[in-house]
Fold this sequence. Notes:
Layout: E1 5-11, H1 15-26, E2 33-39, H2 44-56, E3 61-65, H3 75-85, E4 90-93, E5 99-100, H4 105-115, E6 122-131, E7 134-135, H5 145-148, E8 161-163, H6 165-168, E9 180-183, H7 184-189, H8 201-212, E10 216-227, H9 237-240, H10 243-260, H11 264-287, H12 291-304, H13 308-323
Helix pairs in contact: 8-10, 10-11, 11-12, 12-13
Amino acid sequence: MAIDFSVIIPSRNRPGLVRKAIDSVLQQTHRSVDVIVVNDGSDGDCAVEYGRLATELKGRVTVINLVPTSRGHGPSYAINTGGFHAHGTHLCFLDDDDTWTDVEHLARAADIIGRVDGPVDAYLTNQHAYVNDTLRTEHIWIEGLLERVRRPMAPNALGAYEVTVADLMQCPGFSHLNTTIVRRELFLRISGMDNRIRYEGDRDFYLRVIDAAETILYVPRVVSRHNIPDAIARNSESTAATALEKHLDQIRVFDKAILWAKHPAIRAHGQRHKRFALKKISFLLSENNQYRSSLYYAKEALIIGFTFKWVLYTILLYFRNITNR
């Protein structure tokens, strides 16, 4: 079967950055690629620049313009729009402020996927992360997967490992969208991204993809550069939301995993990380002297995972709540 790719790039108010992302895709040696940029209702001069981009790259890049709203529809909605307009057998994704750094990425993926008997639902790789041009050296996503897996593993002749959900759940992180390729048929079957989630929609998507996937391949190569948003700036979805809003989105992600994942390892992942999110909310509320609300979330975290240290913290919040009434 011929393997062709649709690359979806959601973007809003960043025409200069998205051009670099597009160029990194157009430099790929694999030519069976269509690039879809979804302009999420950019403002003023930025909207004009997206129009110029569409004209300049006509025939090579499709630009879809969403109806403007005050905050945009969000990355999940934009990606879904691109996915439902795509024609490739497999879908790829790229943040508008990131770039692919390996020009052979798609050619290698097409070769590997094409040689496997049966469909490949998910193809995962690695990337480097930078903060203000400083490389982060710790593992953030699934870079340490091979060191964590507790069973003998060997790559196929092309360097790809067939991995399971249990393997992937050994990593505390998840595969970033930049390094994820998903069979379009599976994307449509799980209804793409969750439009209601603005922060960590990519984690939710990852969990639902691997939960539904039959064959998952992992190729431990670095294929992209991810620029972690500056926490001081507010020009990205991850920095525009308040910390509490982010944690509430995380809780939705983990509740979905707990409720509906068919794999026990994903349900356990949801419970573990929901507890972390609840604790972070409790800490944030306590720092703002909102002890009653902080106590509520502390007790929720305690129900999920009992530790004596957290019991002591919850008791402390109880007394703070009483003395501050």
